Amino acid sequence: MINIRIRRTLLTAFLVALIGTGAVQAQQKNTFGDVFVVQASDRQPTVAIGGTVVPYKQVTLAAQIPGRVKYIAGIEGDAFKEGTLLVAIDDSELLAKRSAAYAQLSSAEAELRNAGVQYSRELWSPKSKAAPGGMAIPNLFDQMFTRPAEDFMGERDRGAERSADLYASTTRIEQARSAIMRARSEIQAIEAKLRDAKSLAPFDGVIMDKMVEVGDTVQPGVPMLRFADITWLQVELDIPARLVTGLQEMMVLKKAAVFDDYSEPVDVRVAQIYPMADAQRHTIKVKFDIPQGISQPGMYAKIMIPDTSHAAATGSLPVVPASAIRYRGSLPVVYVQNEKGKAELRLIREGRRLDNGMVTVLSGLAPGDKVYVNPRPSMLSGS
After folding, report:
1. Of 63, 235, 288, 308, which residue has the fewest beta carbons closer than 10 angstroms?
2. Topology, domain 49-57+229-296
3. Per residue in 42-78, pLDDT tens?
4. Is 341 helix (H, G, I), strand (E, B) or coil?
């Protein structure tokens, strides 16, 4: 009888211990969540590069002449057609200078006409043959005795005098023509400055940023407006040189772009690869075309760039469920179960998000590691 009681007591204690162990295990499962063994993906590895959404065409309208701003067409967001006046600088002084230049042109043209008349007069009625003025008897004496005597004695060459008079008349004609050309050149220069006083829309677009107001005084080179065509947008990235080797213009990357203001990944197309790298950052600027209506200029975008380097091409990247990734600030982390069964916080570098809900990990994990699929917010490293 005593042995039976002892056996019953031992059996009861064993059952209590077994139930307690199951409760602890259930509590640990509820606390830490399921554990996922990290696997390797056979997909091509990618690297996430962040960039900015920019307009397809964008210009900055700067002042070309000094002056006071007297007109601005609108505010940020207003749309205008090509050729519309956007900004105008006061041109009163230029208009006055143009009027003075036209007056100089008229004077030069009158001088040219007068020089032409004087040349014709010298050609048909030379001054060298004209009778000098004076009283009748002395004038008659000069014509009958003095001039013939001068010609006979060689003291006066009337042919040379006539040639000199013709040359002087020709010189006055050339000077008048030069004055006309100078006046016209001044008018052209003033007309160019008058055109520079007005900034027209170079294409259909909208005002992105307005840097001046009516009444502001500007100097040449001061930015006044930023004008852009936002019908089509692009994403501008600075990509490491080793990743650019896997890109070609007009190449389409499927479901590779993620935007802050758009929930789904979208396709992008390589629009332009700059021919020169940045000397300080050692990156190459690349622009990608995006579909219409996806984002707005200035927004943040992230594009998955294929990594075709030898190390990435020959290896395979680990993948984890997207629910296993948590963020500490902007840094992605996961909780890994170490050899002692404790949770260990580990910083990772995210890669591409796959269609099956998995995420490739570029660094921080290796195949075979055990991560918690859905860690609770209260989970701490070492727990």
Report:
1. 308
2. Elongation Factor Tu (Ef-tu); domain 3 (2.40.30)
3. 666 778 899 999 999 999 999 999 999 999 999 999 9
4. coil
